[in-house]
UniProtKB/TrEMBL annotation:
<dbReference type="Pfam" id="PF09084">
    <property type="entry name" value="NMT1"/>
</dbReference>
<feature type="domain" description="SsuA/THI5-like">
    <location>
        <begin position="127"/>
        <end position="279"/>
    </location>
</feature>
<dbReference type="InterPro" id="IPR015168">
    <property type="entry name" value="SsuA/THI5"/>
</dbReference>
<protein>
    <submittedName>
        <fullName>NitT/TauT family transport system substrate-binding protein</fullName>
    </submittedName>
</protein>
<keyword id="KW-0732">Signal</keyword>
<feature type="signal peptide">
    <location>
        <begin position="1"/>
        <end position="20"/>
    </location>
</feature>
Amino acid sequence: MKRRIPAAALAAALTTALLAGCSLDSDSGGGAAGADTVPVVIGYQSKTINTVTAGTLLKAQGYLEKRLAAVTERTGTAYSVQWQDYDTGAPITAQMVAEKIDIGSMGDYPMLINGSRTQANPRAKTEIVSVTGYNPKGALNMVVVPPDSSATGLADLAGQKVSASVGSAGHGTLVQALDRAGLDPATGVEVLNQQPQVGSSALESGQVAALSQFVAWPGLLVFQGKAKLLYDGAELNRPTLHGVVVRESYAEQHPEVLDAFLLAQLDATRFIRSEPLEASRIVAEQSGLPQEVVYLYNGPGGTSFDPTLKPRLVEALKTDVPYLKSIGDFADLDIDGFVDDAPLRAAYAAEGTETYDAATAVAANPTTLTGTDPVCGLPVADPAQASELWFDGATQTQPAADPTCLLRSIKKARAEGRGIRAAYVPDAELGTRWFADKAVWVRDGARYLPFTTAAAAGRYQQTNPASVPITYDRAVEEVRP
């Protein structure tokens, strides 16, 4: 949407329509609203928790409806919001091609497929208008294997079946990771195109050797003890992101709706940044996911919830295109033309609390752990070391200066008989936030280092021969009080 209707022109059109006793044509095939009501159809993924600021959390908090109510108060135009929940981005794209969804949120690969498949139809053509969440290294997508699998790297999957949702962000990571591991993505493994739930069942029943998916599926399966992590997408060291696409024709006809949506997304972003634990409770309640898993990704040091369309994220989309062409029919797409930050710039300007350019320039995760470690007595200052402990029944978490201090806190809690709901640590090599009790631990002198995968721990041991592997429980027992 490179042309936006000026506010004055929009007001005049609305006035004319109201005086004529009718409303503007909605251009939406998905609404069932009355003749004087503009339908707004939103496609989202409740369990894809990096899209919560444009989906699950946004919906639960009613931010969009509140923003549209303000528009109604000013103009008299009524709006009817419909939320449609899907497991992946593919069905959202299908509905946008059919002009039945107006705004949708999905991962990077699905957004590119969305743009490619809608561009031939002017009424269906879409553009990216914001990011919901991203990881600068790619840790939003992972490959997991059964707990008893002997595989230690992707090369061990050669010739075996791997479940993935073809065209999804998780599939994109698999394709790139296999290529980097020296396996032909087309022939090195047999990819079964399955929805996340189906793939999870296939992994549990032994029908597939591995599953490659986007958040929150890898964390969920590992948390449930149904899988272990084989490959952390952060090894690619390439940004992965989720974002928002809108049908240009709808946005041009109803710019006030897109304005309201982006302002509502800013509302949700502020909330998840300021109240991450409460936000994770709401998302867990709405999605059916365990709160511990939601908080793994939505908590401090997890996903970067930042709506700005940063240049490095746009560049990452461009480098995804060759991989998309390698896995299927993908029509050429002008990425620079597909990405439009003008509506989001306008939303930032309307808010007036921060300029869009200033927000875009921020590279660090906007939510980090702070405070003082009560056991080690140290400030929690280094995001690459900061860890977190969540006690049973607690409404707040306890920070730890580093993973070794976290183990000391856990040892103290066990001695006092306190239950632990969850503990989180950053991978010592890649920085990925992970469950402390599911991490692969290495002791190096008096330090205890967690890794998401055995491969990452092995790389550390190769360059630090004095270090030794150690189990989580053993590390808790041995750590100095």
